[in-house]
Structures are given as structure tokens and as C-alpha cells.
Design brief:
The protein has about 350 residues and is mainly alpha-helical. Helices cover about 65% and strands about 0% of the residues. It has 15 helices and no strands. Helix 9 packs parallel to helix 14.
């Protein structure tokens, strides 16, 4: 052995630590294989007993909406057959042919099972429509506001007229923009985070849910404390009641919050959390209109939530927003949840497919 070189023996403790890790991996692998084989065997037995494949059982045992579509989506994703796996990624124009291919693969006679084809088509249209909506929304988010684009400028001017119909705008660059909640004299700088998506949502809110938008704008400029119930008042000390009475409630910048809530709606959509809601309100393909209606609902609910939280100052915005986001996520875990069923701008009621 060369001088100065030391050889360190492998620790027996290290060997003992490696052995449990290897055993754990082997155990997990065996459990996975056992469960997979058991599940496939169970599905085979159920099909033989009922005479129906898994897709048939889902469609016949679940009413239209998120419960049914989510189960169909999961079944297709977990299938070992390439045709079924790829079904959730087909173009909307190919959905009908895909249904025919699935029926042929599963040896299901469409003449004796007409309802299955109709139900599967509705589910697939929702699934591929959600994917296409994500692409459409992302495209709007990535498109920056361009003051040289007449269409962009027209939308911005229309937003002002909807929210301030009795106050003519003095100029394109004006301090008046702060009246509807922009930060500076030129709103284009505030659209950087969400691009045209923020403007599209604000304008939709102002046009299609105008009474609510004007009320929220008014309250954001002239905020009031939420009404204190008798039960809450009875628990307050005189000092707390006096503070509640004399403190001024905190408002916020309407347009800036609208862009921020656009970001919240976008994150819900991209993460997949919004599929429960959209599968319940869109009978077939979810569209940009459904997303914008969801934004309107979130704006109204956030305004109510902000009032209930009664923050000390605007610096609490991120805390309140985070808390609101968590509440919405919790609601969306309910497969029967529909966030904004009050809209009538489009058909939001499920049809009996």
C-alpha cells in the first residue's frame, strides 16, 4: 500500500441502512404489481357479471356533470390501450370518430347502446374543450397590451365608458384612470402581468355584470365596514366597538385587483382545479365565456370576502388573497360544485345527456 494513503472500511451501519431501503423499494414494487393485477382482474370479473365495460358503468351510473366526466377522464388516462389514452387529446372535430373507434374496440353495439355514445361524446367534448380553453387563455395572457393597436385601445376606452359613463375622459394619458383603480396615468403598464387577459376580463365584467361591477367599484372607492351582527357586537368590549365605529374601512384599487383576480382564475384553470366547476356549468365544451363568468364570480366573492376580513390596511392584501384562494380551492374539491350558477348570459344549465 502506498505511503500516506488510507483505506476506510465500509461501515456496517451503512450496510444495515441500505438493506431496509432496498427492502422498502421491493415491497412497494410488489404491492404495486399486486394491486394492478388485482384491479384488472376485478374489472374483468365485474364486466363478466354486469355485461358492461367500465366506461358503460360510469356513464349509466352517474348523471351529467363533473362526477361523470372526471371518472371518464381518469378511466381513459389509466387505460392500457393507446386509443383510449389518446382519446382525451383528440381535436374536437375528431371526437365523434373517436367515440366510434372506442365502441368498436369495446365491442359495443351503438344501435343497442345509443345513450353511451351520446354520454361519451359529451364527456370528451368537455375534456378536450378544457384543454383548448387553457391554450386560448394562455394566448391572451401572453399577448401584451399595445397602445398602437386600435383594437386594444378601443377595448380600453370601452372599459372607461362602461365604468364612468357620465365622466368623459380628458385624454388617453390622464390621472382619471386612477378613478377606476389603475395605478398611474397610463393603464397599459398595469397589464404587464396578465397581458390582454386582464383587460378582456375587466371589460366582460363591466359589460355583462354591470350592476355588480359598478357596485364593487363604488365600494372600493368608498368602503364601509361590514355589518356587525348582534352576536358579534355582544362579544366586543366598548373599546373594540368604538374602534369599529370610528375606524375607516380600507378600500382597494378596482382595476389592479381585477388583474390580480385574473391571475387567480388563471392559476385555477392551468392547475386543473377549475375542471370541477367547468364540467358542471358547460354542457359540452367550456369556452372563454365560461372562464370570464367565473372571473366575475371571483371578483364579487373576493369583494365580499375582503369586507368580511376587514383588513387593517392595503398591505394585508396578499394575506387576504391567499386565504380567499384556499377557500375557493376547498370549494372546488366538491365534484358537485358550480361557482357561478347565477349567470344567464349563456346556457349554464346542464342538459340531460
Amino acid at each position: 500500500m502506498p505511503m500516506g494513503r488510507r483505506v476506510y472500511p465500509v461501515s456496517s451501519n451503512s450496510q444495515r441502512n441500505q438493506q431496509p431501503d432496498s427492502n422498502r423499494v421491493l415491497t412497494q414494487l410488489l404491492v404495486f404489481l399486486y394491486c394492478k393485477c388485482l384491479w384488472r382482474g376485478l374489472k374483468f370479473v365485474i364486466r363478466k357479471l354486469t355485461g358492461r365495460c367500465e366506461l358503460q358503468r360510469i356513464c349509466y351510473n352517474n348523471k351529467p356533470g363533473a362526477r361523470r366526466t372526471l371518472k371518464i377522464e381518469s378511466s381513459l388516462k389509466c387505460s392500457k390501450h393507446e386509443l383510449l389514452q389518446s382519446a382525451i387529446n383528440v381535436h374536437p372535430d375528431s371526437v365523434e370518430k373517436t367515440i366510434d373507434d372506442i365502441m368498436f374496440l369495446k365491442k359495443i353495439n351503438p344501435d343497442t347502446n345509443p345513450q353511451l355514445g351520446i354520454s361519451l361524446q359529451a364527456c370528451l367534448l368537455q375534456i378536450v374543450g378544457y384543454r383548448n380553453l387553457v391554450v386560448e387563455v394562455e394566448k391572451l395572457r401572453r399577448e401584451p397590451y399595445d397602445c398602437e393597436n386600435p383594437a386594444h385601445e378601443e377595448m380600453l376606452m370601452k372599459l372607461w365608458k362602461e365604468l364612468r359613463p357620465d365622466s368623459p375622459l380628458s385624454g388617453r394619458i390622464s390621472k382619471q384612470w386612477c378613478e377606476i383603480g389603475f395605478q398611474g396615468n397610463d393603464p397599459k403598464t398595469d397589464f404587464r402581468g396578465m397581458g390582454l387577459l386582464g383587460l378582456h376580463n375587466l371589460l366582460y365584467f363591466a359589460e355583462h355584470d354591470k350592476a355588480t361591477a359598478l357596485q364593487v367599484l363604488h365600494d372600493s372607492l368608498q368602503p364601509k365596514h361590514r355589518n356587525v351582527s348582534k352576536e358579534e357586537a355582544s362579544k366586543m368590549s366598548k373599546a373594540e366597538w368604538d374602534k369599529k365605529t370610528f375606524d375607516k374601512a380600507i378600500g382597494y384599487s378596482f382595476a389592479i385587483v381585477g388583474i390580480n383576480i385574473t391571475d387567480l382564475a388563471y392559476s385555477l384553470l392551468v392547475s386543473g382545479a377549475l375542471n370541477t366547476h367547468l364540467y358542471n356549468v358547460a354542457p359540452e365544451m367550456p369556452s372563454l365565456v365560461h372562464f370570464q363568468q367565473t372571473f366575475c364570480y371571483l371578483m364579487q366573492e373576493f369583494h365580499r370576502f375582503w369586507t368580511e376580513e376587514d383588513p387593517c390596511d392595503i398591505m394585508e392584501f396578499n394575506r387576504v388573497r391567499t386565504k380567499f384562494h384556499k377557500r375557493v380551492l376547498k370549494q372546488l374539491k366538491n365534484p358537485d360544485m358550480a361557482l357561478c350558477p347565477h349567470f344567464t348570459a349563456s346556457d349554464l344549465h346542464l342538459v340531460n345527456l
